[in-house]
Amino acid sequence: MPLQNRVTPFGEIVAVAGRGLMMGNRGVLHDDQRRIIRYAQVRRWIACRTEFRGRKRTVMKPRSYTELFFLDEATALAAGHRPCAECRHEDYQRFRMLWERCHGGPTGADQMDWRLEGDRLAGRRTKRLYRAALATLPDGTYFVDDGDAWLLWGDAMHKWSAEGTWCVNGASGVVMWT
Prior knowledge:
Layout: E1 4-7, E2 13-15, E3 22-25, E4 46-49, E5 68-70, H1 73-79, E6 82-83, H2 89-103, H3 109-120, E7 121-123, E8 126-127, E9 141-145, E10 148-153, E11 156-159, E12 165-168, E13 171-174
Parallel strand pairs: 4-6
Antiparallel strand pairs: 1-2, 3-4, 3-5, 7-8, 9-10, 10-11, 12-13
């Protein structure tokens, strides 16, 4: 039976097979029986590489942070996570540079995390959604249509699913959970 540690673009933590291409962290969310007991514990929600400097972890080890997994980076960002400053240093620096361009002035992880915390949730465990014209959204943005999350990429829209199966403009494609 899969662990409940896969994250949707809505930020929900679900139990589905597969690990995903990225790992994340929101603090210690599970109990000693590896059951999720909280949605988040810390303000710093990060998205990490699944492999870094040969480090090995026991997934959902008691009293240790809960390893969360995302299908891809777009899912991690949509869920409210930012790049890790250690294992994804270049991505973090690029994210920080773009953040500073959009929000003005130099900033660091603490300032970004304070802002992201306020922007990611509309209520307890409720992902904040924003209204925008589809034509104004950049590649890599998820949008919601009839309750489903769709990724905008180029001229195509890709439906997110927990199984990693995407429907591309009516055709089927498969993105494998690894």
